[in-house]
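Title: Prediction job returns without error message
Component: structure pipeline
Severity: low
Priority: P3
Assignee: unassigned

Description:
Job completed but the reporter wants confirmation the result is attached to the right record. Sequence as submitted:
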Amino acid sequence: MKVMATWSAKFGCIPECIRRFLAGQGAPGAGVTLLGRWHATDLSMGFSLFESNDPAALYASAAQWADVLDLKNVLVIEDADVGPILASLGKQ
């Protein structure tokens, strides 16, 4: 399954976020694959796309940053998978 994470630094935590990121701590843990990461140009937030079949591994990866980031993880589905479902709704 794919999970889109949005994140923003908690008040006063940007220096610690930068330190961890530059120290190589931005990679997810075992069982989670990082498919892409994007940063807002104003440093207000970011987006990460992960893939995993292990909810506990996703939780563990998020927990490593929960003290310095406000996180929201959302399960996402691609257009190619949504299209047939929506098409079947029109036939009801």
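Comment from assignee: result matches the submitted record. The longest strand covers residues 2-9.
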